[in-house]
Design a protein that fits this description.
About 85% of the residues lie in helices and about 0% in strands. Helix 1 packs parallel to helix 5, helix 4 crosses helix 6 and helix 5 packs antiparallel against helix 6. The chain is elongated and about 70 Å long.
Length: about 180
């Protein structure tokens, strides 16, 4: 699969679907909403697909804001801007292996940044879904679900920050080594 398509699927569509799934299930199971599936399943599928894209795009935008803050905070140590533009402007006969590695890291980063928001949304929705199914346990489910949502958000934040560090240091090293070859 081409990198741009993979990046779109992993950075927008998958997190969006993950985030909205329990909410849609709660809506369909506990209200009279059918999302159009009873009369026009194609429109129902389009609605779900569109909702996933909107949610995923929102999560991606929030992740991008955080990435920019991290770039700014690491400017002195990694010369992020200079290395980024040098990296982008290099014309090479053969693409270095490191460029594919960087592309994979960027896809991982975008996934982690989006999941930082999508996973908590999923867990909160799953908590509500479980509370609707087991109302007698709703307090404990709420506490556990909220703690899990916060924890998974911090987990993906930490993972994304580590990935961002690897991207910055790898790009700096690639630019340096390619410049020294000249």
């Amino acid at each position: 699969m081409p990198f741009t398509l993979t990046r779109t699927v992993l950075g927008i569509l998958v997190p969006g679907l993950i985030a909205i799934t329990p909410w849609l299930l709660a809506l369909v199971q506990h209200t009279k909403a059918t999302l159009g599936f009873d009369s026009n399943s194609t429109l129902g599928h389009a609605l779900i697909f569109s909702a996933a894209i909107v949610a995923g795009t929102f999560f991606e935008a929030q992740g991008t804001k955080l990435e920019v803050k991290w770039d700014n905070s690491k400017e002195e140590a990694h010369q992020v801007s200079e290395n980024w533009y040098t990296y982008l402007s290099q014309v090479l006969d053969k693409e270095p292996v490191g460029y594919r590695y960087m592309s994979r890291l960027a896809t991982t980063l975008y996934f982690e940044l989006a999941m930082m928001w999508a996973a908590p949304a999923f867990l909160l929705g799953a908590t509500i879904l479980a509370s609707l199914r087991f109302p007698e346990a709703s307090v404990i489910l709420g506490i556990v679900g909220l703690a899990a949502a916060v924890g998974v958000g911090f987990y993906f934040h930490s993972q994304a920050n580590c990935t961002h560090d690897v991207i910055c240091s790898t790009r700096k090293e690639l630019v340096s080594r390619l410049s020294n070859k000249d």
